[in-house]
Amino acid sequence: MIARVDTMDGEPTQGRQEAPAGPCRTPSAHGGPVSNPKSNAARTARPRKDAPSRAKAQAEANPPSPPGPAGRRALLGGVIALALCAVIAVGVVLAHYRSYTTSPIPHLDAERVVVISEGASFDTVVQDLEAADLVTRPLYFKVLARRQQLDRRVKAGTYRIPAHTTPTELLAMLAEGGSDAQVKLTIPEGFNIYKIADRLDELGLANRTAFLDRVQAAELRRKYNLRHGDSLEGYLFPDTYLFRQGTSIDNIIDRMVQRHRAVWAELVEELGEDHLESLKTLHELDQHGLITLASIVEKETRSTKERPIIAQVFYNRLSRKMKLQTDPTCVYGPTTYLDKPHPTSCRDKANRYSTYVIEGLPPGPIANPGRASLRAVLEPTTDARHRDYLYFVTRADGSGRHTFSTTYKDHQKAIKTAFGK
């Protein structure tokens, strides 16, 4: 239908149809049509592809304004606070460092002996001193040494560190040098690695634990081509040596091993290679087995005359598949080497060295044999009066000599004579 609508200026206009109000149209404040609000909201919620770029352009066009005076003061205050914290932290560390370097070493209440080995690096020296409780703060000690340019001036030697020494004084002593006098080391025949370690420690030539670690190291056994055993036991020749203080543990060990090899080579040369090979074949023993047997002979008697007889007794028992049943094997080990043989240790099934428990020889030597015992094993008695013995017992007269027997019955009589049993 045709409706009459007044214009804004009051003149009627014909031909324009008034839109009816309805769900899709809402009269505006001026009477004209407007869009549905829900439809508008839907169009507004739809993201526009160019929104990020517009936001970026707007940000570039309107950069944030610099902080005002109050903001600058707050920022400056934060920087100053951080700087003060850093200064305080550095001051605390420096105070702690100075206190460490000038205060007596903790727990150093009595003189202590320390050995610095030849060729040791400064880091190794610090590690050794730390292990000895003479350096409690390795980093501070290294800084002190480098500041005084002493880290390259530490000398090998033996040092006697007085009680209440400070780290600064200790470092000065190490740079000045310790004693380089030669020390006389005597290793008696029959000493095992544990007794050797004790003696080296007593003389200040080597730390006991460090020495035992090295003689039991697989690396050194490979070096000397020893394929059997748990250590260099049996190959550290008993003799008298002179060592300078600070001689490295490896050098001490090498001197002993080379001495053993020299003596063995002399005996083999004297008796002949053929003799040695014949002995090995006869008793089904290699060189390691022969040295193991020599160590047992060494521990059984102090008599040079008896050694070849005792060696033959053991060969006789081995050939008859009899257990050796020799007391010294019962107490070989790091915790029992100072004990006297006792039935409890001899019968202990967990004791892999006890020849009362195991068949044949123990896994390796139980001591370091001297020349006489090595020779006794290489050249056992051939005397018809002694070559068939199977038993022996220590006499009760204190001589250290033995009574030998061919039969168990005679052996029991010898025991009764010796001990009254």
Overview in brief:
The protein is built from 16 helices and 10 strands. By secondary structure, it is mostly helical. It has 3 domains: 86-179, Dna Ligase, domain 1, CATH 3.30.1490; 182-262, Dna Ligase, domain 1 (2-Layer Sandwich); 284-419, no CATH class.
General description of the model:
The chain is mainly α. The chain folds into 3 domains: 86-179, Endolytic murein transglycosylase (Dna Ligase, domain 1, 2-Layer Sandwich), CATH 3.30.1490; 182-262, Dna Ligase, domain 1, CATH 3.30.1490; 284-419, no CATH class. It contains 16 helices and 10 strands. It has helices at 37-45, 51-61, 69-102, 122-131, 138-147, 167-176, 193-203, 208-215, 218-223, 249-271, 273-283, 287-300, 307-319, 343-346, 371-378, 408-419; strands spanning 5-6, 12-13, 26-27, 33-34, 112-116, 157-161, 182-186, 240-244, 391-394, 402-405. The strands form 5 sheets. Strands 1-2 form a two-stranded antiparallel sheet. A hairpin with a 5-residue loop joins strand 3 (26-27) and strand 4 (33-34). Residues 1-45 have low confidence and may be disordered.
